[in-house]
Amino acid sequence: MKILLTGSNGQLGYDFQNLFDKLEVEYYATDYNELDITNDNKLEKFFNENKNFDIIINCAAYNDVDKAETDKEKCYLLNSEAPTKLAEICKKTGAVFMTYSTDFVFDGERKSPYTEKDTPNPLSVYGKSKYKGESDVLNAYEKSYVIRTSWVFGIANNNFNKQVINWSKAKNKLNIVDDQVSVPTYSKDLAEFSWELIKTGKFGLYHISNSGECSKFEQAKYVLEKIGWNGKLETAKTKDFKLPAARAEYTKLSSEKTEKLLGKKIPDWKDAIDRFLQEMKEKGEL
């Protein structure tokens, strides 16, 4: 079995590499420098030179939610067009395809967890690009997995947990929004459950996020308590920050479909953050 990983230097790509190393699974890791998935000529050249992949896992994405509002073309290129082209390449070769979407496809109007059957209504360019990408991929190739996830954090890149820790080093007072609710997801858990899903052969749309739910404020509070910060943490509202992209208030994803298929529960977000902080300590980052 031969696996291609795109976007391998990000949080999820990094944890897939660690997982495959541990399992002794053969993989070929590429990032932008090795393979620009938005460039048709480079894609064609790469696949002419590198054939016989059994699985392609696309971890590349445009994730700057606010910048996307003015960088629409690049956002759609990376989040919609490129994954669809990879799905079409897989269709020609018979490889299994997996790519990722987001809780940002939902408008947050409901107050119970979103399932795969709920109708998306994205509020931002980022959310719309992801929704188009997931729809186009599923229409392009039947042997595709599209995984929606939320608030991803991992050791390999910047994320909200790391931002909070960095802010706490420089400030004695922090204001964090309490009107955005979803669930933080550890890229290590996301990689492991994605891999379990691939092995089922049950293609389609799935949600994978850690269990439970919290606001950004509750997430920050948990992290700051764990690292022993003695400053003052106060609530804020999303509108206070005048961000370019609209944020939904509630986008918790239900992972029940995934958990039922795999027969196991995805760990709670607090447990995930505990393990992440331990990983930071082991790497000398905390």
Can you put this structure into words, describing what you see?
Catalyzes the reduction of dTDP-6-deoxy-L-lyxo-4-hexulose to yield dTDP-L-rhamnose. It comes from Sebaldella termitidis (strain ATCC 33386 / NCTC 11300). Residues 1-281 form the RmlD-like substrate binding domain. InterPro entries: dTDP_dehydrorham_reduct (IPR005913), NAD(P)-bd_dom_sf (IPR036291), RmlD-like-bd (IPR029903). Its EC number is 1.1.1.133. By secondary structure, the chain is an alpha/beta fold. The chain has a single domain (3-159, 183-212, 251-267), classed as NAD(P)-binding Rossmann-like Domain (Rossmann fold, 3-Layer(aba) Sandwich). It contains 9 helices and 12 strands. A 6-stranded parallel beta sheet has the order 2-1-3-4-5-10, with helices on both faces. A two-stranded parallel sheet has the order 6-9. Strand 3 (55-58), helix 3 (72-93) and strand 4 (96-102) form a beta-alpha-beta unit. The model has no long low-confidence stretch (mean pLDDT 97).
| CATH arch. level architecture | 3-Layer(aba) Sandwich
Helix content: 40-55%
State the end-to-end distance: 37 Å
Question: Mean pLDDT score, rounded?
Answer: 97
InterPro entries: dTDP_dehydrorham_reduct, NAD(P)-bd_dom_sf, RmlD-like-bd
GO biological process, one term: dTDP-rhamnose biosynthetic process
GO molecular function: dTDP-4-dehydrorhamnose reductase activity
Pathway: Carbohydrate biosynthesis; dTDP-L-rhamnose biosynthesis
